[in-house]
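Note to self: keep these together.
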Amino acid sequence: MDIRFILGCVLPGIMTGVGAIPIFFTKNVSQKLLDILLSAAAGVMLAATCFSLIIPSLESGGGSLSGVMITSLGLLAGAIMLDLIDKYAPHEHLMDKRMEGGAEKKEISKLWLFVIAIAIHNFPEGLATGVGFGGDNIKNGLSIAVGISLQNMPEGLAVALALVKEGYSIKKGFWIAALTGLLEPVGAFLGLLLVSVFAPVLPFILALAGGAMLFVISDEIIPETHNNGYEREATYGVVLGFIVMMALSALF
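Structure:
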């Protein structure tokens, strides 16, 4: 297997831990800055979804009406898949304290509820990275991997900060944040497997990953960053993140 495949699948997960490193130097990161950074990450994910998943899906489908239908069905299937996981897997969002899923909060520790939430969030990102390498399209896969790496850094810091605020030590908050990032390679290698086994339905699989990503962006990241009084700043964060990822996709 090409080393670029391996790095592309593993590096984004590692960058979550890299992003959490500032927790050792300060716990006083303003909510405004955090919302801007996370919104920029959402913009990066949105651009990666558009340019590295949806457009390649349409191109792989031949650009005909049938290709558009396949991409549309894939997007819808990816969103429904994440919706069902989000609905039935018990988890808690540390950013806004929402408890979701099919179990009472008292039945599972707060830490495990949070870890499950991060797994739900990271799985489609890893899946998208793996699928992005579909059809030996290394350039497309690396583009997604770079984009996911960029968005994982502020996410890692947000995770570590949330855990420290919940009473965990700085060291424990960092290591939990770093380890949650390593859930992404699982989704990445699953994406690679799907593409290799089901190559004839590559357009659908690309769109499936795109739909899952869109669901996470709309249901998780943007609402959480637009809930603290910095909606306008967060909106510009999305736009700037989108521009950065658009430029990476176009130039590399």
